[in-house]
Amino acid sequence: IAIIAILAAILFPVFAKAREKSRQTACLSNCKQWGLAIMQYAQDYDETLGGAFNYWGPVLGSVAFTVYLQPYCKSTQMTLCPSDKNVSPGYGYNWRGVGYNVGYPYSPPRTGPMYEGLSLSLIAHPAELVVMGDCYNYRTTGTPPSTINLYAGYIYYEFADNPTICARHNDGNNFTFADGHAKWVAVSQMRSLMWYYYN
Q1: Can you give the pTM of this predicted structure?
Q2: % helix / strand / coil in the chain, to the nearest 5?
């Protein structure tokens, strides 16, 4: 019995890690599909990316990227990360570095890629710029107070400054980049990612 208990104590963490690796792979597949959807959207809109939200008129208002990209991915399951299905959407958009409320009729009008859509031609290193990825329904105080570091629907740059709230998948997270590819990134590498299109 003691030997079985020791073996169980050794093997259970291994099994748990293997299960998480499987979920990590499924999530990475989601991120890759989002990348393809983002690229298809850009081709349909003069090589311009959408934002975290796109304005669809006075009735529908602003809709999240997971909604306006649905015609390109055809699956609502892609909005959920297999490792945390309680967070919906399970993925956030890098609005500060890629785009926020595109097309919204601000008064006075707001201009620039954040509000008009980011042209692919403005991105110096598309294979390095984070567009979207894993996110958490999480808020914290900081500097300035009440900074929202990372939560459902958004990814903020401060994400890289708070590694303790990251690491959904084996001490890392999955991200989609501006060239459409997706990859897993370790928490220790968050700061090395490109978070703004003009870096």
Answers
A1: 0.82
A2: 40, 20, 45
